[in-house]
Amino acid sequence: MCDRISLPEMTDLWQKTMNWQPNEQQQQQFQQLYELILVGNNQFNLTRITEPTEFWEKHLWDSLRGILPLLENKQDTAVKAIDIGTGAGFPGIPIAISLPATTVTLLDSTRKKITFLDTVIEQLNISNVQTLTFRAEILSKQPEHRQTYDLATIRAVGSAAICAEYTLPLLKSGGLAVLYRGNWTEEEKISLQSTVEKLDGEVASIDSFTTPLSQSVRHCINLKKL
Ligand SMILES: C[S@@+](CC[C@H](N)C(=O)[O-])C[C@H]1O[C@@H](n2cnc3c(N)ncnc32)[C@H](O)[C@@H]1O
Asked: What is the ipTM of this complex?
């Protein structure tokens, strides 16, 4: 393990921006996740975001801001979620830590990332996470996965239309896909709209906000499966 670098707790900022804050155990798990990723980075080149405050904002805060309604209202609901193209586990692992009643499948097409995530899950000792090495477009055709999830998250994987194609087939009727985006343009909106309609979905809402420290622009595109 590397020399311990502490993540900032940011209790006031969690509270102010999300009306939520991690409990002691969750804070420890965030810290442990950070340390495991710093170590894993040497071998797997997982993320450029390693400075503690930036890690807090771009990996922890950003991951949870996308599922804010669940954090506020669905703490005890058994939600079946999948994080597509999870990479080093974002947003899936922070979601699993923060919503223990939610089961999260971490999906990535790169085996080495999933192998790394398996060790992370074991060391974090979290039981509500499982991993899968697959391409999303293949998984979505499999009967045991197609139309079986309540929530699908996807961050930094491709265009918004591609993200719709990867997420919507996996959702049950009434399920929600959260597309984590930075900037959001009119062209993206038009191309997304036609894809979503073909996939029996609708654009339920677009949540526009800035991150609390660097004021970076973010959009969460919430798609509903009809
Ligand atoms: C830029 S990384 C984003 C990782 C993480 N979601 C984040 O925001 O930090 C994109 C990830 O998506 C995975 N990926 C790309 N295309 C995929 C596909 N069709 N199915 C599953 N995973 C895919 C890649 O292997 C990579 O780990």
From this structure: 0.99
